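A sample follows:
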Amino acid sequence: MITSELPVLQDSSNESGVPDAVSLGMSVSELEDPTDPKGKKKRGRPGKPPAPNKKPRKSPAEKAAGGARGRKANGIPQTNGEGGEPVTLFEVVKMGKSAMQSVVDDWIESYKQDRDIALLDLINFFIQCSGCKGTVRIEMFRNMQNAEIIRKMTEEFDEDSGDYPLTMPGPLWKKFRYNFCEFIGVLIRQCQYSIIYDEYLMDTVISLLTGLSDSQVRAFRHTSTLAAMKLMTALVNVALNLSIHQDNTQRQYEAERNKMAGKRANEKLELLLQKRKELQENQDEIENMMNSIFKGIFVHRYRDAIAEIRAICIEEIGVWMKMYSDAFLNDSYLKYVGWTLHDRQGEVRLKCLKALQNLYTNRELFPKLELFTNRFKDRIVSMTLDKEYDVAVEAIRLVTLILQGSEDALSNEDCENVYHLVYSAHRPVAVAAGEFLHRKLFSRHDPLAEEALAKRRGRSSPNGNLIRMLVLFFLESELHEHAAYLVDSLWESSQDLLKDWECMTELLLEEPVQGEEVLSDRQESALIELMVCTIRQAAEAHPPVGRGTGKRVLTAKERKTQIDDKNKLTEHFIMALPMLLSKYQTDSEKVANLLQIPMFFDLDVYSAGRMEKHLDALLKQIRLVVEKHVESDVLEACSKTYSILCSEEYTIMNRVDIARSQLIDEMTDRFTHCVEDLLQAGEEADDDDIYNVLSTLKRLTAFHNAHDLTRWDLFGSCYRLLKAGIEQGSMPEQIAVQALQCSHYSILWQLVKMTEGAPSKDDLLVLRRVVKSFLAVCQQCLSNVNTPVKEQAFMLLCDLLMIFSHQLMSGGREGLEPLVFNPDSTLQNELLSFILDHVFIDQDDENQSMEGDEEDEANKIEALHKRRNLLAAFSKLIIYDIVDMPAAADIFKHYMKYYNDYGDIIKETLSKTRQSDKILCAKTLILSLQQLFNELLQDQGPTLDRTSSHVSGIKELARRFALTFGLDQIKTREAVATLHKDGIEFAFKYQNPRGAEFPPPNLAFLEVLSEFSSKLLRQDKKTVVSHASLKCVILTIFPPEESVETSWLRGNDSLQTPGALAPPQLTSTVLRENPRQATDTHLPDHDSEPGSENDYVHNSQMQMSWLGQQKMEDSRKDRTAMNYMKARNQTVRQTVRGLMEDDAEPIFEDVMMSSRGQLEDMNEEFEDTMVIDLPPSRNRRERAELRPDFFDSAAMIEDESGFTMPMF
């Protein structure tokens, strides 16, 4: 609490006693009334002596003398040293411990005693609320203009931090913002009858806020704009009260003046005239103040660069227009809101919409908003598609309010723009659009009349017409066909309509009465689909897939509603569903939807309500559906329904199990006989024989998916069909596909029994033989002429190899080891070849493979989805180490070409394989690039055009691969080093067939390899260069046919990795020697990039070093060989160095690249001269020694033998 006493702080340098700054408070102990439990100050009546427990007021001299306690000499606000209570207005408002009414009353009291000091304290309050450390002193206030004061405060502003009270996080500062706004409102309310009209307080405050709002300092501008807008809001409230008083005074005056002369009180008339005049003067004063704030602050700040400031202005002008609509609700003010609807920040647009919502909620204001609506309606409707979902939601709600106020305000086109948003994936947008749709189409305008009409027609529900309208709307939504999304959008606004299942059933089952239109077949299908979606929504009580982040926990009320709805729909559809199935049993689409209803039943109702006869009727209808249909979706729905009804937790399980077993027995017997007839007929089988086998097999396959049918031994008959088809080659593709699928289900059910029990060894061996024989059949089917058969066999092979992999023994199932299968190299090759032939194909090839059938866009998408599934199935085998990782090279190399179709799958495969084995993954990456390079050599010959798009494509792929290594070079160090080692060996693998004086044919591959050089540590780059130089020397002196190179490759070095990469037997483009190398006799001359093969031909120094060695005698001496190796080594190092990127990378801990810790002898012949030691680990301070560029010639020394040695 603050007191009205204003002690003035004396400046030690001011001998004249002029006060520098003011303080608004003293200790609480001096102010609180001990008898007042709330601690509030009681204001006594005039003339009443002060309470004995209160100290008498101090004189100004006493105030000046006592004000120094608890404050610094520079005037910076401090807290009271005794009790730690706030002593400044800013601190009081920030802490919020005192009632704002009391704080304002104390300030008003101080203002009445000395308005300059009180006003100075208010000015400092605004300055401190802006986060400024400076303080306005009394001489500054009296002698300086506002602009000078603001400039002075700007100089003292703390610019170290961009935070200030209004932007600081935390509950304290959030409360401060509220208290700040409340203080301004209460201040104007308490001063509205006298002080604000003294032409001093308001003029000073408005002038100060106007100056601060024009400051370049954001904190000043933000805080002063908020203060000014709240001040304006308070003044608008005062003006409204004055207007009301004026109207009341005018009515009293008119009533008194209209009285008869004898009864008229002239004195009262004069008093009323005087009061009216006074109110008018006050009104004029308030209007002047408001005009000053509006024109001086609002007009400039509503388009401020800071979105928060713009939002404050728009929010407050909305309050003014709603509070005092007679003065502010006109086009002169509405235009600012309309213009700001186009603001680039969603926060500001959101404030505009909410301000308008407050106006359109009041229907009495619609006439004043008519012109604004016509002008900005299109913009508001377009904002329903705003990129900010919050803005879009509020825009839809505003359009709904406009619709409620005036049906004619929105055109049909405007409404259609909102209609389709009910299918939005963002649920709040869809729910808001559902509310709009409900208001426009599904709200009953005259419920009583519609109920009377329904009774006359014999209907129990009046919602028949609304449900018909819902069906029509769903069918006319050409862009979307998601019934579940439509139901979810309308669920909150139209639950009574959507839960009227009795009305829906009446429309489907009963004949239309007079005056009703007959539902078409398409409308019946749509109504059934919508009805099933409403049942699902009621039973599950959560949005459909794609809306929301997941299932949320239901409240007790929602849980009770869910249970009630589930009981209601169960009781109704237990009786209605058999009748619906009986009517539509021949329509596959309707039946498939209707059979989803039982999964939402509370099945205990069958036994609790003694409704077994309805269960028997349902089972009878399902049996009839199974016998009449062969469509997969219908059969799957029947199978799933039987599975749900056979749950062991319900007492009806036995009854349903008997009916199911009878059905399976009949189908199995029929299938066995049909198979025998088909096999006996052989190639002479007619269409009836094929149809009988296919239809029965489809039914059994659908049931085998959800039910254990192993006791009927369907695998034997299916296997016979498949073997006969392979041997004869004439089995219809549909029968083969279904037989493969049914056999697959049989194997899985047998495996389930093995895992759940304790199988004997004989049982495991029997299952192993079954699996082995089926895998062999699937492998043979990969060469089938029918694409569906090949695709089905491939998917089943991938699934079974995944299931019966080494992971089968995890989780304590070591006893299942006999069931583990590891694919041999032949099977792996066939799987990879299938992927290359059926996944990585061009669109033209795909169209040709469709045998001329015309494909629309949906078929293309379906085909792409199928190919993605094939690639994903094979990729899983690579990820889980079932297929050898080098097989992934043929997949990785297509990353760029098929990025749009399979980029995500290939990238995820690369990520997972790197997690399992970084080294092998790196070797696979470089292998894929080598394959592409070999293919390019085969196409273009040994002379590559480095500017061609093919070379650029390989380099871009390498760059993309390099990005996948990430930023942690320590983790990827060994993998990157291995990649460079394999790349360098590939570049120098073959000698040029034209002679040793020509560069190796694969040397250009170093340019591709250079894309990875940025991932090398600085200390490793020189080792890579040395390795490349040595490879070149060995290739030159010891050609590949000699054994020295192989002996060197067997040596250990820091780049060597555990295990060598096996020859890529699984790849379709196996690395092989270029056939053109033996036939081409010369290289064409053309321009090329520096560092290419041509440099070796046209560079005289290089050419002499190569040619000179060829002219030497056969009996070369050791010294001559060493000199040659030195010259060649330096030349190649320069070439390789040009291809390596020497980025300014951070120096990481210098760890060993191999587990052995050093480079051992790379060749037995040079043991005494080639020993390279990596340095021991250094700490951070010693790492500075590694900063020199190791590619600099100064970092290289020569040993006695002439070799160039790396120095670390």
The mean pLDDT is 78.
